[in-house]
Amino acid sequence: MAQQAPASIHGHVQNPAGQAMTSGSVKLTKDRSADEKSRKYAYTFQVDGTGNYKGSDVAPDTYVAIYFSADGRSIDFVDNVTLTSGQDKVVDIDMTRKEFTDKMTPEEKKQLEEFKKQNAAATAAGQGSERYRQEAEPRDRGRSLEQPGRSSRQVRQG
Length: 158
Description:
This protein is an alpha+beta fold. It has 3 helices and 9 strands. The protein has a domain of 110 residues: Carboxypeptidase-like, regulatory domain (Immunoglobulin-like, Sandwich).
């Protein structure tokens, strides 16, 4: 029996303010157990300084792609990522989507809105702002992969 050619995956990770997450990792797992501590990860890809990640030599299969912050907290995931032989698939982890922001605490939503106002004013004055990324990194939304509201809409073929 011939062995299938490996697949590749790449994508971009951004926070609820639309800024690139410049550290952390994206891990792939087939293990959908509710217990994060015992979950096994088949692949780990580092997120670079521009929010991008990429990986190759991935066995064709269906995975959950999970973004972990630099301190090891799982932040967001995309379920049902199907990689086929020879494919290079784009899987973006976009925390600006409604399903993610709806799960933010009232305090996090307030910080995000304040950041957007300050950033709009700074942009109008010709300056950028990094405050949201530094002060209000998204928190873990819970690790049950059965949690409603998470979607694989950010998956597109590249």
